[in-house]
Amino acid sequence: MQISQLSSLLSYQVASTQNSINQIQTQLATNQKILDPGSQGVVTRLSAQASAYSSASSNLTQGSNVLSVAQTALTQISSIIQQLQGLATKANTSTSSSTDLAALQASFRSLTTQLTSLVSSSAVNGTNLLSAGSMLIQTGIDYTSSSSLSVSGVSLGSLTSALALLNVSATSGIALSSSNAFYLASTSFTGNFSVGAAEAINALGSALTVISSAQSSITASASGLSILQTSVTSLNSALTSSVNAIQLPDQAALQTQLTALNNQQNIDYYLISQLSSQYTALLTIFR
Description:
The chain starts with a helix and ends with a helix. 72% of the residues lie in helices and 3% in strands. It is built from seven helices and two strands; from the N terminus they run H-H-H-E-E-H-H-H-H.
């Protein structure tokens, strides 16, 4: 092989090595592999799916927040109703004076006002699961009915309104069942329904049953969302890991390759310089 041909070959090698060095430096700087079109298409598809599952996860988190607010409110409502039962029990005795009964009724009314406030303040972004509200949560990525979950709330507005009509200061009154309590709450009747403390105790017992049922329903929905959240998070994590495996380079391996290429480049440059010197020496012979 002539010196000129060998020099050209080494020059080509230098250019090729430099191209490889540039590619590795780009990958190190961007922390992204240089992918062929097929691999890039796979990354695009998997990334889109991961993004969709991330959105679904966000939806589930928001839904869980709404349920959490409802659960907290129901716990507080249950506690208040038990306090109301205690007041009604104290009032249900012949030894209570009218002053005592009036004081108990004032406390009773203050607590029932809190019940109404709790129900109305349990909304999250306009969704109130304690006031006949419901929510539809997108949980999948194909946007079909099987990829969404509907969560139904409970209606406690009538119940709290009915409890606000009770009057434990009365010594006796009309027996109050849950049915006519709800009826009274839905009419234009104002003031206190004149029932005795004993009847109020029974009404409050029925109210606790309603609250207990609501707690079971909300808790079941929260558990369902938690299971879905775990599944969606796992899918998103798996997809993200797959994308990273395809497009994220091995930084340590690239650094090793870069060092080797730089060394090879230095050797090639040295050989070219030596060949150039020899070629120059040969030319001087024929001058």
